[in-house]
Amino acid sequence: MTVRAVVKGVGHYLPERVVENVEFEATLDTSDEWIRTRSGIERRHFAAEGETTSMMGTKAARNALLDAGLTADDIDAVIVATSTPDLTFPSVATMIQSELGMRHGFGFDVQAVCAGFIYALSNANAQITSGQAKRILVIGAETFSRIMDWEDRSTCVLFGDGAGALVLEAQDGTGTSADRGILSIDLNSDGSYKDMLYVDGGVSTTGTAGKLRMQGNALFRQAVQKLASTAETALERAGITSNDIDWVVPHQANIRIIEGTAKKLGLSMDKVVVTVQDHGNTSAASIPLAMSVGKARGQIKQGDICVAEAIGGGLAWGAVVLRW
Predict the structure, then answer these.
(1) Is residue 156 flagged as an active site residue?
(2) How far is CA 97 from CA 52, 71, 136, in A?
(3) Active-site position among 63, 123, 281, 306
(4) DSSP letters along 84-108, please?
(5) Choosing from 125, 251, 279, 306, which is the catalytic residue?
(6) How does pLDDT run along the chain (324 residues), one tens digit per residue?
(7) Could you confirm whether 45 is annotated as catalytic?
(8) Any catalytic annotation for residue 281?
(9) Active-site position among 12, 63, 114, 123
């Protein structure tokens, strides 16, 4: 008998404010057409003044619990993937734990930028398969609008805010790829690529939050190759092929990266859950957001094989294969 970490529920939250591409035309030398053709993004959501990462994460968590038919009393741990915490410390996870009324269990944050949710899923999977926890809320939540340089037209139009959450539950499996739950994981990082995507501030350097800096063209070339490679490795570990995939749920950074990765994997875009046009790049929130939207659309169904892959600052990248 093998213990599997099975998706029991999924939910998301998006801030009320929707920012269409045309809004940037008033302050930047850009256009709706320029943004769409280069990124596939049409709009994104920005958090309201005073609306924090933990607030959004809490709302996504509540929606995931509702979907799972569970309450906070049923949860053993909260793991949050974020690069935009409310405070330097304590963790966003403990803030969400408190908001949910949990006085038991444990919570902590994971920071791997846009790959953060993959890393958080890996950590949750390890906690569940080792018997450390039975049910875990895994949340991706970001307020990237707080670290944008609004004069940098190449980056500030790409990012948005939001949160997504999964409830993972320990269930018995057979140890084969027919099991529901997480079947395999592949994680990678290479710090020599640091200058491709980073924030120019921090506690031990400037004492400020800093602003996001990105070498878009260089990052694009790395992303397609590394995303396809990590997905292939994870599929091999799960003992399945790309023919078995029902859905790819990629990090929603750029439609051209998503299309390029699907092509390398030999997959039709009909098998890809795409939300980038409505959300922009929400970093660690993008995969759980896409999973929640994909389920709500009627795309992702129980028993489907899903591959999630992401790359972010670090560079850090990875993939998860799971049967929904």
Answers:
(1) no
(2) 15, 12, 11
(3) 281
(4) S-SSSSS-HHHHHHHHTT--SSEEE
(5) 251
(6) 899 999 999 999 999 999 999 999 999 999 999 999 999 999 999 999 999 999 999 999 999 999 999 999 999 999 999 999 999 999 999 999 999 999 999 999 999 999 999 999 999 999 999 999 999 999 999 999 999 999 999 999 999 999 999 999 999 999 999 999 999 999 999 999 999 999 999 999 999 999 999 998 899 999 999 999 999 999 999 999 999 999 999 999 999 999 999 999 999 999 999 999 999 999 999 999 999 999 999 999 999 999 999 999 999 999 999 999
(7) no
(8) yes
(9) 114
